[in-house]
Write a structure and sequence with these properties.
It is a multi-pass membrane protein. Keywords: Membrane, Transmembrane, Transmembrane helix. It is found in: Endomembrane system. Its main location: membrane. This protein is mainly alpha-helical and 146 residues long. The protein has one domain. It is built from eight helices and no strands. Helix 5 packs antiparallel against helix 6.
């Protein structure tokens, strides 16, 4: 079986972030339902469904201009991770039973780990800008963890 490491996942995310443009953000949003279906219907990805929805909301709010306090690199990593899920022929082709989606999960999990601070700020913004000590945001970490 092919091996997919965190190092390889980071390389995928870094490359995608470096190549991000507005068209890629639009492509990410236009593929939202397909990506959500893949995540929901796969045991390796399903635990991340709530985080994936948050990622989509962040990208959507950025594109609409409602939230611009996220670094371009983080947006690129998020978009890359989400689109990676949709690619059937990635490092481990998705048609390989069980293992086919493991690389997708590694890329997604690493992305979540790398943009946690930005996602926390975004969730605080969505909750009205309350500080992390407020009870309304006490569950921010829970929303981001699996």
């Amino acid at each position: 079986m092919l091996f997919f490491s965190k190092k390889r996942a980071k390389h995928v995310l870094d490359e995608g972030a470096a190549e991000l443009d507005d068209a890629t953000l639009q492509k990410t949003l236009s593929n939202r339902q397909g990506i959500l279906n893949r995540v929901t219907n796969n045991a390796s990805l399903a635990p991340y469904i709530s985080q994936v929805k948050i990622l989509f909301n962040l990208v959507q709010d950025y594109v609409k201009g409602d939230y611009r306090e996220v670094p371009w690199w983080s947006l690129g990593s998020i978009s890359t991770a989400l689109l990676y899920i949709l690619m059937p022929m990635d490092a481990l082709p998705d048609y390989i039973p069980v293992a086919g989606f493991l690389d997708d999960a590694v890329v997604l999990k690493l992305c979540l780990d790398m943009v946690t601070k930005d996602l926390t700020k975004y969730l605080e913004f969505k909750q009205g800008g309350k500080s992390s000590g407020d009870t309304a945001t006490d569950n921010t970490a829970d929303k981001l963890s699996t």
